[in-house]
Amino acid sequence: MSETIFTKIINKEIPADILFEDDRVLAFKDINPQAPVHFLVIPKKAIATTNDIAQEDEALVGYMHRIAAKVSADLGVANDGYRTVMNCNKHGGQTVYHIHLHVLAGKALGWPPYQSKLKIE
Ligand code: AMP
Fold first, then answer.
1. 38 catalytic, yes or no?
2. For the chain, where are the E strands, in sequence order?
3. What is the pLDDT of residues 2-47, one digit of tens each?
4. Domain extent for 77
């Protein structure tokens, strides 16, 4: 797999606004936020797309979600809630081919099919 910009962030070759780091994952603010809070959780292991997640990666992907919850709590948005998204390939809108969990929060997020049924406060 060819190196992506996220490998450069992991290796500290380019800067990022890092929110959490350990030996398995890195969480940092998205450079082009789509919500008041928008950060990414990435594995340090380079996996190109969600199609490439192997059985041996199952715990790692679960851990990414736990870190998403932890960082959301640290930022004070966990109780109100957030949305997690992983885009896959061109129809999914993936632009960086190193899997990443988007975490969007800080306001009530629209969800068109159900919007009319939701009571958003
Ligand atoms: P995706 O389109 O799902 O592949 O998402 C890639 C995300 O990476 C986009 O939301 C970009 O804004 C974000 N991104 C790209 N380069 C950087 C960077 N250097 N630092 C932080 N976020 C980035």
1. no
2. 18-21, 25-29, 37-43, 82-85, 101-105
3. 789 999 999 999 999 999 999 999 999 999 999 999 999 999 999 9
4. 5-105
pTM metric for this prediction:
0.94
CA of 64 to the centre of ligand 1 (A): 16
CA of residue 1 to ligand 1 center, whole Å: 18
d(CA 108, CA 87): 21
- Is residue 20, in this structure, part of any structural domain at all? yes
Identify whether 75 is part of a domain.
yes
Q: Provide the residue count of the chain.
A: 121
Has residue 114 been placed in a domain? no
CA distance 121 to 107: 10
The domain spanning residue 82 has which CATH number?
A: 3.30.428.10
119 located within any domain: no
Number of domains in the chain: 1
Strands (E), 30-112: 37-43, 82-85, 101-105
Which is the closest atom of ligand 1 to the Cα of 29? 21
The amino acid that residue 114 corresponds to is: Y
Q: List the structure tokens of 26.
A: 């890195």
